[in-house]
Amino acid sequence: MNPTEAGADAQREEIKALFITERGYWREWTDTMLQVSPGFVRQYARYAGYPARTGPLTPRMVELIYVGLDASSSHLFESGLHTHMKRALEVGATQDEIFDVLHLVAVQGVASVCQASDILAELAGTDTSRALDEKLQARIDQLGPAHALSLAGVARLDAGYTEALLDFVEQGRPGSGLSAPERSLVQLALHACFTAFNADAVRQIVTTALAQGLTSAELQQAIELGAHLAVHGTALGARVFRQVSAG
User: Fold this and answer.
1) DSSP sequence for 90-137
2) Could you give the CA distance from residue 72 to residue 64 in angstroms, rounded to a whole number?
3) What is d(CA 149, CA 140) in angstroms, rounded to the nearest whole number?
4) How far is CA 2 from CA 10, 27, 171, in A?
5) How far apart are CA 92 and CA 63, in angstroms?
6) 143-145-146 Cα angle (round to 5)
7) What is the model's pLDDT at position 239?
8) Is 243 part of any domain?
9) Enclosing domain of residue 26
10) Four-point Cα dihedral 171, 177, 179, 180, nearest 10
11) Mean per-residue pLDDT for 158-181?
């Protein structure tokens, strides 16, 4: 091996060590990228690791947010979920907290149902001045804002569905899970992520979270944690390139 090749190999090992320190894993796709584009691996490690390394959220909270993002039906990234669920347990997350995150993942899609129902109610000429049942309205007022659920239109179109949904939101989570502000952080990450971006839900969750005492820095970190999930497309491309070039 000539000195130039030896120097390049040493640089790659340095980059690999940096990546593992920042991201906590090493995969076949990162190895492929390291051989073809070491600059990508170095800069991605710094970029993707920045929010977790510099923000105010605890490692436990960061890992719980990653669990939600990777488990989300808009992403379903099993290997990442395995990595971050394992790390969440290692840094102090409980079983109930993890399953509380998974409950929020299951509720995520309802925000879009609410928005679509509002459009349907508007175009179908549904009487929006009609008062809802007092008990149902009280449940909507209590739970709706904390989950970015604008349920008035849904309730006027299908009160039974709304009651079943509220039962799930109220009673479907573990007995001892996340605090209300922690749930807001997870939900913000889910609704702000590019895989299922929902501007109306982001606005409502941020409003709720600020009222709960969360800071802009904490909310910004939760938002930033979702962006680099886009690299999973790069990972797919690197794996396919490896197969194509080998065949």
Assistant:
1) HTT--HHHHHHHHHHHHHTTHHHHHHHHHHHHHHHT--TTSPPPHHHH
2) 12
3) 8
4) 12, 28, 66
5) 10
6) 70
7) 94
8) yes
9) 1-54+231-247
10) -30
11) 94
Tell whether the model's pLDDT for residue 37 goes beyond 80: yes
Residue type, 123: L
Token readout for 116 is 């679509």
**Residue 24 gets which letter from DSSP?**
S
Please give the pLDDT value at position 4.
Answer: 64
Across the chain, mean pLDDT equals 93
Distances (CA, A) of 146 to 172, 177, 185: 15, 15, 11
HSE (side-chain half, CA atoms, 13 Å) at 191: 27
Q: What is the mean pLDDT of residues 91-111?
A: 97
Q: Residue 15 corresponds to which tokens in the numbers above?
A: 């980059």
What pLDDT does residue 246 have?
85
Number of compact structural domains in the chain: 2
Q: How far apart are CA 195 and CA 179, in angstroms?
A: 25
- Tell me which amino acid residue 164 is: A
Contact 36, 15 (CB under 8 A): no
pLDDT for 2: 59
What is the enclosing helix (H) or strand (E) of 156?
Answer: helix 152-157
Q: Which segment, 138-142, 154-158, 222-226, is predicted with the most confidence on average?
A: 222-226
CB 185 within 8 A of CB 216: no
Sequence letter at residue 17: A
